[in-house]
């Protein structure tokens, strides 16, 4: 009989592969287990079983597997189906989804790395010549690949030599996939059972000559009596010394044992009492539940500071009580700290966190807890990738700040939108989805107003605090009347001064980081450009550098113009760094901190700034859009938006929508506690519709206007747009290739195809870029169109002169 398994390999390949297994392996293996399989010439990969069958492959001879890595499935069928949906909808390979879904510790692939076995003794005289050469090479470098050995020995058949060294235990292969995950173990001690009886114990105490040792034994008993919990070595050494405890262990009086502890531990002792919702919140809560009777998805449109988190919490309670799993998706992992403390305060140890800044081990732990449907991961908080966890029993998915663009993965594939993929996942679990936002995306609000989603609105802030008062400062007029100091209007300075006088804090928003965007030669007008990208370099004063925000290229600030040698160079435009500096001159005694990509690189740097601000050590926070993301402060009375205009004029169909969202969200950080907040928006366009809509808190007005534009310009929600991006170092070849592709698409699709267009930044890292858009109307077949596009892309790949052009497909790229 033939026995085969069908697996996904973690490579960007569209197909699954068939491997041969023995009958007993066949009986043991289940869908969702990982199997190490040979692939290609000499590589081993962690593959995932998705099927067991008896049909041999027709195009190749099935190889045997290397080994079975799991005893039980670590992935379930709902997940596998969901991954295939992602691959199909977002036009990527199933291998891409698999690789993106699993924490890398569960996904070791081998390049057959050889290293020396450090704990074995080597007698060099015993080694044959070939063996010695490899051994010697390993004295100079810690590891070698098979190919290196081929080079060193200058012959093809090196495996027998490697085999010999292996059998002599001199080297080891990392190819033998090792579980990298090591649970964290806590060391505990207990009294050896010989001394448990009272008279034995008394005899023991008498026999101990060292007072210190006697003392430790007595303290052990005291701890045991007050607190019936296991006693850790750490606890007991704190009361004496490590040497004394060690002595007792060596004598066999104490014995050590280990208990695995979950790495990610929060303060789990403070469970809050009953949560009481305000009347408005309660109404929204009841309404959400009602919409769930006949809708799968509901939008909670609640103004900033309306207390959406409390409503989510109340809703989570319901699902927890029913024994269901809950997934809580956040746009930004930096926000988790605030939320985790709020949720653990309520749900204690049922809350787990999953995100990319956690170590591999921590992520594997959450993975396993979810897989076992364990209570420790009944509520999972995470950024978009948490969607891939092995849920088997989901009841509810919350997508907080659903409008945020970070929910969409841009690179690498799978380029999925976590909100949309969450809705599909929930469907498979027959779970509900709650989307929350003060500024919903146009698409979501469209779905909600058309009845596809439920819609619940919450229009008052918690505690009936008024919405912030927004005041516009006309920059043109202010410069003209000399009512400006640097980039600060006198009005803004006045308001900041008043906030300080009241002991309140201030947030200033500037959409650009760095000191000022560009350095311009006043003689010839030259602006230094990135040598690898088509963008101007940004001036960073603190480091006295010019930097490229696209590829990271940097150079020292030049003293004279590279073109005309003039020394008359001036900075134009302004960023967060310059605001910070001007502010320091205006208010030298105040503590000013900047929050942008440059200051938040470290693991906890974001949290540090937030904590400092919450604890009121920081008076003013100057930052980029990071400030707009759902942070909750209680002493901010003033928000200043330094320049509203550069957001508005982005070459993007969403620019107006996003400007509205960003300004409304930043404004929402003002006046959270009991006092009404103030917002100053500095702009050259005070009459611009978006600025007016922000000022009047007019989401509906913005929505209607944008929806109209979307309709006449063929954008979502009326059309879905697929963007093809082509890249190549050779400008002419790229131009030709993209024209070819455009024409073939145009001829084969009866829908709008646009391009090939040179994007705003036409070259990044020395690669030229062209884009093509395919716009699919609501009534056209999505599947059919994608199939045609895929077919055309396959044939594009076969045209020899275009093969080297990289094409990426981004479905719903927005
Ligand atoms: P949103 O996410 O809608 O902007 P939050 O959920 O952050 O608003 O709530 C704003 C503030 O009001 C928070 O400080 C929160 O603790 C507080 N708050 C909201 N609802 C309640 C409630 N029912 N009881 C006590 N405090 C609440
Ligand atoms: Zn010049
Ligand atoms: Zn660059």
Total strands: 37
CATH C-level category of the largest domain: Alpha Beta
The largest sheet, given as strand count, sense and whether it forms a barrel, is:
7 strands, parallel
Q: What's the end-to-end separation, in Å?
A: 51 Å
Structural class: alpha/beta
Please mark out the parts with pLDDT under 50 across 5 or more consecutive residues, or reply none.
175-181, 266-271
Per CATH, which architecture of the largest domain? Answer: 3-Layer(aba) Sandwich
The average pLDDT is 88
Going by CATH, the homologous superfamily of the largest domain would be P-loop containing nucleotide triphosphate hydrolases
The shape is globular
What ligands are attached or bound here?
A: adenosine-5'-diphosphate, zinc ion
Number of helices: 26
- What is the name of the CATH topology of the largest domain? Rossmann fold
Layout of helices and strands, plus pairs?
Layout lengths: L3 E5 L8 E4 L2 H6 L5 E6 L3 E11 L9 E2 L2 E2 L8 H13 L4 H8 L11 E4 L12 H12 L2 E3 H8 L5 H9 L3 E3 L10 E8 L6 H10 L3 H16 L4 E2 H7 L2 H9 L3 E8 L17 H13 L5 E6 L5 H14 L3 E5 L6 H12 L3 E4 L5 H12 L7 E4 L11 E7 L17 H12 L2 E6 L4 H8 L4 E5 L10 E6 H6 L3 E2 L2 E2 H12 L3 E5 L8 E4 L16 E3 L4 E3 L6 E3 L12 E4 L3 H11 L5 E4 L9 H10 L5 E4 L12 E6 L3 H4 L6 H13 L10 E6 L5 H7 L3 H14 L6 E10 L2 H18 L4 E5 L5 E2 L2 E11 L4 H17 L7 E6 L3
Parallel strand pairs: 2-5, 13-18, 13-19, 14-16, 14-17, 15-16, 17-18, 20-32, 23-30, 23-31, 29-30, 31-32
Antiparallel strand pairs: 1-2, 1-4, 3-4, 3-6, 7-8, 7-9, 10-11, 10-12, 21-22, 24-28, 25-26, 26-27, 33-36, 33-37, 34-36, 35-36
Helix pairs in contact: 2-3, 2-15, 11-12, 22-23, 25-26
The site of adenosine-5'-diphosphate has 16 residues, from helix 12.
